[in-house]
Design goal:
The protein is elongated. Helices cover about 45% and strands about 20% of the residues. The strands form two sheets. It has a two-stranded antiparallel sheet. It has a two-stranded antiparallel sheet with strand order 3-4. It has one domain. Helix 1 runs antiparallel to helix 3. About 5% of the residues have low confidence. By secondary structure, it is an alpha+beta fold.
């Protein structure tokens, strides 16, 4: 794998973790949302990753086929279709005839930990890209 392919792999990891973090933040923001335009409470969303080949965007500059690496991409976004959590709140505007309100099945503590994990994974990809950038810079310095 070339250094430029390593940059592309790191960039794909950053993009995937950013998408994951956006979904987690959306889940946390809607943890108490009982009414959506689709009807019913908000549904939790999760990103599903898959391995994908990554080609370097610099290959055309060098005019040769560069060896691609394996990166990561968001394959799909899965919506939690479990029954909502029912809470007894008879005065709530969205309460049913028995006084129960349907709330999203979101655990804020779990999503916060997942968000921290996504943040650290993003930072790890940034560190890898910085290391590759330093290797490229040292190679250039050696050629001077």
């Amino acid at each position: 794998m070339s250094l430029f392919s390593a940059l592309s792999v790191g960039a794909s990891g950053m993009a995937a973790q950013r998408a994951r973090a956006e979904l987690l933040v959306e889940n946390l923001a809607n943890a108490e949302t009982t009414r959506t335009p689709e009807g019913g409470p908000y549904r939790r969303k999760d990103a599903v990753f898959q391995s994908t080949s990554v080609d370097s965007p610099f290959s055309s500059v060098f005019g040769q086929e560069m060896e691609g690496g394996n990166g990561v991409a968001v394959a799909s976004v899965v919506t939690d279709m479990r029954d909502p959590e029912k809470r007894y709140q008879p005065g709530h505007p969205d309460a049913d005839a028995n006084g129960y309100v349907a709330f999203p099945r979101i655990n804020p503590a779990e999503d916060t930990v997942d968000l921290l994990s996504a943040s650290r994974s993003y930072e790890a990809n940034v560190a890898a890209i910085v290391a590759v950038k330093d290797m490229i810079q040292r190679s250039i310095d050696l050629l001077k």
